[in-house]
Design a protein that fits this description.
Layout: H1 2-19, H2 38-51, H3 57-71
Length: about 70
Amino acid sequence: MIIFLIAGVIGAVYLVNYLRGKPGLSIDGFGESSGGDSSKSSLEILQKRFASGEISRIEYDEMKNTILKDGNL
């Protein structure tokens, strides 16, 4: 009985993703709109990279200025 319940849940996730145009079992980003502001998401990624120590403060400032400048075109 539990196997049928698990199969039903997996099937439902697959069906929802298929109807959304993204076949598979991934549930990442569920409920997010795909037409978001790319400069905002770029800044968020940059902030995460700086916070994790991947890039230095100078690199962060240069990249941030580039993103903001390109976003205003």
